Amino acid sequence: MTPARIPGSARLATYFHVHLVSDSTGETLNAMAKAVTARFDGVIPIEHIYALVRSPRQMERVLEEMASAPGVVLHTIVDRELREQLETGCRHLDMPQIGALDPLVGALSRYLGAALSTRVGAQHTLDNDYFNRISALDFAMAHDDGQGTTEQLESADVVLCGVSRTSKTPTCIYLAHRGIRAANVPLIPGQEDGERLVALKNPLVIGLTVSPDRLVQIRKNRLEGLNAQRASAYVDHNAVRDETVKARRAFERRGWPVIDVTRRSIEETAAAVINLVSERRTRRVGASW
């Protein structure tokens, strides 16, 4: 482990190597490693990802690379021989190794009384769920930023509505990866007020709102990143406050559930949307999140 100063801070950060070894794409390990290390302040992992490791020769190369950067090893290796090769190699290197899914798999196995599958990459099977996710992604891209007629929007599971820069598009993309068909319609002063969504019967329409101060900051950053100029109303505090107030009133008048995205990540906003969709399916949709 190597201590170093955190940029912009007087505190020392601890850098360490974490080796992620997977016989599949490595997505599960990557997410788990990020979730765990986020629980420690001042700890920054240096990730080494080895995906699609499915032969003894590949494992040999992995162990050779790990020897040059001692650290912690997380793996999701299913094949018994490959797993034994990795465990033996880690013992020789004096590096701790952890089967990331072992506790959960073991607990479920005992509960279900079922034998474990040794099929590699089982979670990435080209089944109906996979193709539904691809279809949902196509739908989100085809119905982004107000595209599509009212009739076309009827086939959505959810339609997100909000003023500019309330994370509508990335939230729809994230939802698509969860198999949810999501479209979004922006509220544009003097042009689009969302009235056409009132007639929708199938999708759940959700309003996204944000604090005016945060919205002004986001819009200014966006313009700076594009080296663009926009009419002052787009970033004027009074105009933006009026825009957000009108949007929330429109949501409340139409009885749409509202999610405040001011302090939410895309993942958190998507989770709130999923909860609302699930509640609607059980006739328990709430008024606000």
Offer a concise description of the structure.
The chain has 289 residues and is an alpha/beta fold.
Unreliable sequence segments:
none
Rg value:
24 Å
Overall strand count: 9
| Content of β-strand | 15-25%
Instruction: Write down the CATH topology of the largest domain.
Output: Rossmann fold
Count of separate DSSP helical elements: 10
Query: Helices and strands, in N-to-C order?
Result: EEHEHEHEHHHEHEEHHEH
Backbone structural class: alpha/beta
Q: Quickly count the domains.
A: 2
CATH C-level class of the largest domain: Alpha Beta
| Structural shape | elongated
Cα(first) to Cα(last) distance is: 42 Å
What is the share of helical residues? 40-55%
Largest sheet: 5 strands, mixed
Notes on the protein architecture:
The chain has 289 residues and is of the alpha/beta class. It has two domains: 2-123, Rossmann fold (3-Layer(aba) Sandwich); 128-281, Rossmann fold. Helices cover 44% and strands 18% of the residues. It has ten helices and nine strands. It has helices spanning 27-37, 56-67, 80-93, 102-112, 128-142, 150-153, 168-177, 212-226, 237-254, 266-281; strands spanning 2-5, 12-21, 43-50, 71-75, 97-99, 158-163, 182-187, 204-209, 258-260. Strands 1, 2, 3, 4 and 5 form a five-stranded mixed β-sheet that branches. The protein has a four-stranded parallel β-sheet with strand order 7-6-8-9, with helices on both faces. β1 (2-5) and β2 (12-21) form a beta hairpin. α2 runs parallel beside α3 (80-93), α5 runs antiparallel to α7 and α7 packs across α10 (266-281). The protein starts with a strand and ends in an 8-residue tail after the last helix.
